[in-house]
Design goal:
It is built from 13 helices and 3 strands, in the order H-H-H-H-H-H-E-H-H-E-E-H-H-H-H-H. It has a 3-stranded mixed beta sheet. It is mainly α and about 300 residues long. The chain folds into 2 domains: about 70 residues, no CATH class; about 210 residues, no CATH class.
């Protein structure tokens, strides 16, 4: 909290009527648990978190953010359980094919988008962007390791909940995932190091000077398993709007020799970002932010 706020809080509490204070505390508690309450509490859902998105069911948003607050590092547990479902005999083949397939789909879809819809870039800038995209290295965290090492890593601490002791087993798993997050040293041994410790989804990281994009393989495995009946694979759709900014967008447009985007182009870009976030929330975990590790 803000130190200034804390210093003023005792005076505010001293001057506040007890009944008013108790009513406020009760109101905040109701708002906090509103995702679990009956439909009559629906007007409070938007107040239960600070990341409201239009066109997304309010209860879905509120429940996801509540789960995020309650189950920190939960994405590691869900992802490891998903990864461990793969058949050990076919794991290596499936893993390699998935990674190569994702890279081809991603580069192809973004190249098509650059060639067809980059109205605020001239042809030379588009050519530079396409060339940069073709030469970009897409590195999946852990992909260079032995597949057995990866499988063992993601299987670690991924035991299911005990139906007879739900709360106790939940706390044990929660504690275990938190310990893995904080105690893994050095960071290069942590294949999930780009997880925000309070978020439900891994991020990605781009190194401009090296033209390298880091992306957790676990994210791809989890979403592909979750959407295995849907094609094309949903992951490229989640990256296609974020990757172009690394090769030709906004401040980097000047580096590519193209003009700065006009105001209505920026509006369209922000709308694209919102659509990406909304689509992610409707179909899977929320991609919220990146976390850096040294590479």
């Amino acid at each position: 909290m803000d130190p200034d706020y804390i210093s003023k809080l005792p005076k505010i509490l001293d001057e506040t009527d007890t009944v008013t204070l108790l009513n406020y505390v009760g109101y905040r508690l109701v708002v906090h648990v509103s995702p679990l309450l009956a439909k009559v509490a629906s007007p409070l859902l938007r107040l239960s978190h600070d990341h409201y998105l239009e066109f997304v069911p309010q209860r879905l948003q509120a429940c996801m953010h509540m789960l995020e607050r309650v189950y920190k590092h939960g994405m590691r547990f869900f992802g490891r359980m998903t990864f461990s479902r793969s058949n050990s005999t076919l794991l290596l083949k499936h893993y390699d094919y998935s990674m190569a397939s994702l890279e081809m789909q991603l580069k192809s879809s973004i190249t098509d988008r650059l060639l067809s819809s980059s109205s605020w870039l001239d042809r030379s800038a588009i050519g530079v962007a396409v060339d940069k995209l073709e030469n970009m290295r897409l590195i999946f965290l852990g992909s260079a390791d032995d597949i057995n090492t990866i499988a063992s890593y993601y299987n670690f601490n991924a035991q299911p909940l005990d139906p007879s002791h739900l709360v106790e087993s939940f706390r044990e798993i929660q504690s275990g995932t938190m310990n893995v997050y904080w105690e893994t040293k050095p960071p290069k041994d942590d294949l999930d190091a780009r997880y925000d410790h309070t978020a439900l989804s891994p991020g990605h990281e781009y190194f401009f000077g090296r033209n390298v994009l880091f992306y957790p393989a676990l994210k791809h495995c989890l979403l592909e398993r979750h959407h295995e009946k849907h094609r094309p694979c949903p992951v490229p759709a989640r990256l296609r709007r974020s990757l172009p900014r690394h090769v030709c967008r906004c401040g980097q447009a000047r580096l590519l020799g193209g003009p700065q985007p006009r105001s209505h182009d920026l509006v369209e870009q922000r709308r694209d970002e919102q659509v990406l976030t909304v689509g992610t929330l409707l179909s899977g975990p929320v991609l919220r932010r990146d976390t850096r590790i040294d590479r």
